[in-house]
Write a structure and sequence with these properties.
The structure is a single chain. The chain has 2 domains: 32 residues; 98 residues, Immunoglobulin-like. The N and C termini lie far apart (82 Å). The strands form 2 sheets. The chain has a 4-stranded mixed β-sheet, with no helix packed on it. A 4-stranded antiparallel β-sheet has the order 3-2-5-6, with no helix packed on it. The radius of gyration is 25 Å and the shape is rod-shaped. It is α+β, with helices and mostly antiparallel strands. β2 and β3 form a beta hairpin. Helix content is 20%, strand content 38%.
Length: 148
């Protein structure tokens, strides 16, 4: 009789152990969030006149820069979206029409280090050309472009 009770107890304990392991695996898969590499989006006005309504579109994410004086920039830190293949850059200069330009992003990126934060600088010049510049931030220091 003791043997039957012990065998029954072991069987129930083993089944419970399997259920706990399965639940632990399911919970770990569900709770894992996708790693998004830390980066900053910077819209920089390298022209000689003020730009307004500046923004960068990463898929459904709008990153607003607003009004940017000549030589100045607007920064959006760590937007928490994947870096897209292409971005849409929009801006307006001195009551002219809204400029819209598509910029390749992902294929211009260098291999990214997993320990560094990067600046994706969308530089808009006086001729309304957009150039993407990627710069790493120094480890433990604020990004050099963040406060310009």
């Amino acid at each position: 009789m003791f043997y039957k009770q012990f065998k029954s107890f072991i069987r129930i304990t083993f089944i419970n152990l399997i259920i706990i392991i399965i639940l632990a695996v399911i919970m770990s898969v569900i709770s894992c969030t996708k790693y998004i590499h830390p980066y900053n989006v910077i819209i920089k006005n390298t022209g000689t006149s003020k730009i307004s309504h500046s923004q960068v579109m990463f898929g459904n994410k709008s990153i607003f820069g607003g009004w940017i004086s000549p030589g100045q920039s607007a920064t959006y830190s760590n937007p928490q979206v994947d870096i897209p293949e292409k971005a849409i850059v929009k801006w307006q200069r001195d009551n002219t029409k809204l400029e819209v330009m598509e910029v390749s992003v992902k294929n211009l990126l260098p291999p990214l280090s997993t320990t560094e934060e990067y600046n994706l600088i969308f530089s808009i010049d006086e001729e309304d050309n957009v150039k993407l510049i990627v710069t790493p931030c120094t480890s433990g220091q604020p990004c050099p472009e963040r406060f310009k």
